[in-house]
Amino acid sequence: MDDVDRKILAELQQDGRLTVTELAARVRLSVSPCHRRLRELERSGAISGYRAVVEPAAVGLTFEALVFVSMRQEDRDTVVEFETALAGIPHVLEAERLFGEPDYLLRVATADLAAFQRLYDERLATLPGVQRLTSTLVMKHVVKGRPFPAERTGA
């Protein structure tokens, strides 16, 4: 991946609806080479898809929490079973497996506190291998959905 590929990625992260012609102009390439590079980025997995960014409140998800999960057991079968079950819960927007304690961090969105409590009690607390759940409420997003930086190293 070179600097031109990084420019293509940066532009698409800002506006995934750009036409190839618009993209080519922004990265200063002719259309054919830009199109080839774009297809190669998709083929290689550097671009894994395109989607709309939806405002949670617009779809009635006004309550957000971070849930920390500590596992009782972390054998391979339990971890696979936990992660598979977790993937089937639509209100879990993101799930990260962590080193150390806790074992997982989940970002959850629901309509309100009552809906979160039901999700917490009925779904999250009953997941395989869970020992403890700890949650904190999101007050506000300071940095959200930031694109990956175009350059390789941070400042």
Quaternary structure annotation: single chain
Please tally the β strands and state the result. Answer: 4
- What form results from the Cα inertia axes? elongated
How much β-strand is present in the residues? 15-25%
Q: Overall mean pLDDT score?
A: 94
Order of strands in the sheet with the most strands?
Answer: 2-3-1-4
Order of helices and strands: HHHEHEEHE
What structural category characterises the helix and strand content?
alpha+beta
Q: N- to C-terminal separation?
A: 20 Å
Number of helix segments?
5
The major pleated sheet works out as: 4 strands, antiparallel
The percentage helix is 25-40%
Low-confidence segments, ≥5 residues, pLDDT <50? none
The radius of gyration over CA amounts to 20 Å
List keywords for this structure.
four-stranded antiparallel β-sheet; 5 helices; 4 strands; 37% helix
What does this structure look like?
The protein is of the alpha+beta class. It is built from five helices and four strands; from the N terminus they run αααβαββαβ. The protein has helices spanning 3-14, 20-27, 31-44, 76-87, 113-124, and strands spanning 63-71, 92-97, 104-110, 130-137. Helix 1 (3-14) packs across helix 2 and helix 2 packs across helix 3. The mean pLDDT is 94.
